[in-house]
Amino acid sequence: MQFCKFCRGLVLAVFSSDLCFSNLDLAFRSKHIKYVRKRASRHMKMFKCSSVLQDCIGKQWFKRSGDGDLYLSGNATIKRLQLLRCKCQQAERVSGVTTEGGNGTWFVDSAKTLNLNGAVNSPGVLELGDTQQLTSEKEVLTSNGSVNKEEESLTTNGAVGTGRDASRKASVDPIEEEAWELLRDSVVYYCGSPIGTIAANDPTSSSVLNYDQVFIRDFIPSGIAFLLKGEYDIVRNFLLHTLQLQSWEKTMDCHSPGQGLMPASFKVRTFPLDGDDSATEEVLDPDFGEAAIGRVAPVDSGLWWIILLRAYGKCSGDLSVQERIDVQTGIKMILRLCLADGFDMFPTLLVTDGSCMIDRRMGIHGHPLEIQALFYSALLGAREMLTPEDGSADLLRALNNRLVALSFHIREYYWIDLRKLNEIYRYKTEEYSYDAVNKFNIYPDQVSTSLVEWMPNQGGYLIGNLQPAHMDFRFFSLGNMWSIVSGLATRDQSNAILDLIEAKWSDLVADMPLKICHPALEGQEWQIITGSDPKNTPWSYHNGGSWPTLLWQLTVACIKMNRPEIAARAIEIAEKRLSRDKWPEYYDTKKARFIGKQARLFQTWSIAGYLVAKLLLADPSAARMLVTDEDPELVNAFSCMISSNPRRKRGQNNSKKPFII
Ligand code: GLC
After folding, report:
1. pTM above 0.85?
2. Where is the stretch described as Disordered (predicted)?
């Protein structure tokens, strides 16, 4: 059997849960389908916004322009509100839930509303108006039905735009201008308000799949770009509406995920209103993985949501959103889900394969670095935003303990450089004791010669995953970048990661930043680990493909470490091709020379990732909304753990008490 150059000796487990389920599935099928339908229609009732299309708006009104967009003939500029008349209250007021016939149907009431935990929100708490921008808009309907807005934003305090907004007008960079235009084209509206951006707006693609949905993780760079422009409403709407979706009951084969799970994506669907041919209603329909390819649970969504919530507060100065009772409840629900006790002995989050950006089988089940870095960032953000109250003391204690244990675990056991690799190479195995050096019983044979050759003299990185007897030595970019941004990696480690990127530039950046992971799985290992996934062939897509969206995360990491020149170099490379290639989702081949075989064009997070990278380089201080610095309390707790670590105090009587904050 041939294994990946970096992962020789990988232990594989083959599960056949599908087989076990099939009989049960058959027995339940007929009943279950009805059940699902009933539930679905119930869900559809939950978030709807009725609208009436004007009678005269028909297909004959639309003309296709040369570049594929649909325009309204005769009257190219049309007020959206003339097209779509919402019967419902303002979208942002949809905040309550009550029980109707025991069904838990959501209701719209601007007076008093109950959130899931039964807490009563006062009307004031639910108001959204504070930073609402007054806008004069020019709107054009595009092929996906979204409305482009060119706004001159005037905030209620009278300031026109922001400082950064003003610089927008001075900017003449044509690629940036194009990117802004495309980003605005991707905006999705719900009841007339911007609520997110679709994943891709590719007119050349024959199958849309779910790329016409708003993905939580994909919206993060879009949201940051809008924040950097001083356009806060879309982010605020996104945060509040996805929060409502969090509480939806969703099931897969009669099983519901834990409360607090955020959807992977959602879609605004339009339905004819019962009994009225000319009327429609808009419905937010989330996907928690129950419709996604491979049925993957999006563990990262809630973590990203917390990260964006913090960034929104920091950038806009509007803390009223994070202080809302329903938002505080949402944060706690995500935390409770992540901090719930399980069977695991590790402080890292145990997840299934495909639970993050890599959302299909790629051998990253267990404790993948990406999830751990986002988890750490979300814990820190939540700690900052949670308002102290008696009921949350236990949660905060659990959170603090987890932060310490998690950072210790990752910094100690995920880190490799040449010195550490040499240590692993000489590991003794089968150590049964409390003070084993090789705690996870890693067989030194896993250190392949190609990894030894690849590791630069200077630099190092956090490995992709750690399990009993298994280190996944692949380099995963997002996890490493976000470990720098969140401070999960130490300062020395953070600098060493950037050293490694510089030393391995031709592998990790090559002709398009940035490799999602390195190296690719090949041969039999690819067959076994991916299930011979034709989309994840070597050096394509998730399997060693290059993803321009990762540029923004690289930029934040470089700015944090005061090494922005690294990001600037990468952006320069990306700029040569991104617009010319029509903003692909990903690139293929070892050196990223080809546009990905199945890559969408006009992929929103490729566009937004580029914009965020540019905007942050122009104003590095703005990266503060994403970065977290090391907390002195954590450093103290961490050093206590280091000094009580048996690896360092082998043979000594280790009588130190565990550290509890
Ligand atoms: C792909 C990516 C995923 C992304 C989605 C929408 O499935 O793997 O990370 O969220 O496309 O762009």
Report:
1. no
2. 141-170
